[in-house]
Amino acid sequence: MEHTATNNVTPDYPSAGPPCETCKKPDMSNMTWDDGIKHFITTYFAAPRMWPVGYILGSPYSPLHLERDIPTKNWRDPFEDLLALQSRGEMIEDADRKAEEQVEAMERFKTSSHFISSVNAGLEHIKQGEAMMQEEHATAVKDNDTRTMDAISNDILPAMKQDRERYIAFARSVKASYDRDLAMPASRWRPRGQWIATLMNTGAVPNWTWRLTNSNDGPVTTFSTRDDTASPESSGVVSISERELTQTFADNQPFEISCAKPVPPGAMKALLGKDHNIRGDQLYDGYTPQKSIVAQSASSDAVALPDGSRAWKTTVRSELADDTSVTRAFVREPGKLYGEVMWGWKSMNLTNTLFAAMMDRSRSPVEEAFERLRAREEAVSVSELDE
């Protein structure tokens, strides 16, 4: 077919040539790399084989886009109901959503309580450090040690006060976040990738499956059509990290092809080693690196129950850091299924946080105070030698 250009421009791709009068497609011969990638992603997501995942990720009318523009509305549940009605002939039951909300509410309370306990422990640690510094200051006064007096009064104690204020501000933000989230439906609490995965678990999107792995950008979810024998033209797959989903839907940045790097192979081995004193339960009660999830996958199938009714059976396989795996099947247990999948995302985020803490080797406020005091004394000693 001969490509006959018109005088019109293509607004979505500024670098493309005018569209063809016959096929209405833009002339891509001189398109820039950025416009070419945008065109590829838009076309890929719009393909019938990508429904509905492509629509969720690429459409301006996606619930994930709409909730950014109008956050007071619940966009996720009605969209899931429409998909469920289309695929299985019935919407999601209210009892199922309430079971999920109960699990999520308990999890939010547990997480917030753990954070508040950590804040209280930190404040107590700072209080002990301030008392120690006061004693050091009193000793310095007796010895007429003006350098130490000045370091404690003008450097260390003010820094400890700032640390205490940061702890208190963090506690207040956690409390405010908890109060705000109580008014939200359970689906809105979920990370975006986890919510898309949930659509597959409930049978709303029966022809897709998902697999969760970890990366430096947080959990990465790979969504793929279930027919592995299908040709590339009739199958669909996309991988995206939670960071990329946040950039796309919260920050309104263009969708990017996933380039998240996996967690280094030695990272989990280092966490499982005995050469560090950072405990997982300091981050979250019940978390241990040995039993942390390094990959998780699930698939759902319609099953017939003894009473003749139909239900969805979801099988979740979790691969653990100690090279073991756990497989669980759920039928009409929305709360338990929700908790199982939620723990996959949470476990990976905790692992990344623990690994970052191990690499950072961050010191407590008291240790930092003594470090500042020693540095100050060493600096003074060096200046005296120079004199």
- Strand residue percentage: 5-15%
Structural class: alpha+beta
Supply Rg.
27 Å
Largest sheet: 6 strands, antiparallel
Segments where pLDDT lies below 50 for 5+ residues? 1-11, 379-387
* Count of beta strands: 6
Overall pLDDT score: 79
What is the H-and-E element order?
HHHHHHHHEEEHHEEEHH
| Helix percentage range | 40-55%
Shape: elongated
Describe this structure in words.
This protein is α+β, with helices and mostly antiparallel strands. It contains twelve helices and six strands. Strands 3-2-1-4-5-6 form a six-stranded antiparallel sheet. Strand 1 and strand 2 form a beta hairpin. Helix 5 (94-142) runs parallel beside helix 11. The protein is elongated. The relative contact order is 0.10. The model is unreliable at 1-11 and 379-387 (pLDDT under 50).
Q: Main attributes?
A:
elongated, alpha+beta, 387 residues, 53% helix, 12 helices, single chain, disordered N terminus
What layout of secondary structure does this protein have?
Elements (H helix, E strand, L loop, with lengths): L32 H14 L6 H6 L4 H7 L6 H13 L5 H49 L3 H36 L4 H4 L2 H10 L6 E6 L6 E6 L11 E5 H8 L15 H8 L20 E12 L5 E11 L4 E7 L2 H27 L4 H22 L1
Antiparallel strand pairs: 1-2, 1-4, 2-3, 4-5, 5-6
Helix pairs in contact: 5-6, 5-11, 6-12, 10-11
Short description:
The protein has helices at 33-46, 53-58, 63-69, 76-88, 94-142, 146-181, 186-189, 192-201, 242-249, 265-272, 334-360, 365-386, and strands at residues 208-213, 220-225, 237-241, 293-304, 310-320, 325-331. The chain is α+β, with helices and mostly antiparallel strands and 387 residues long.
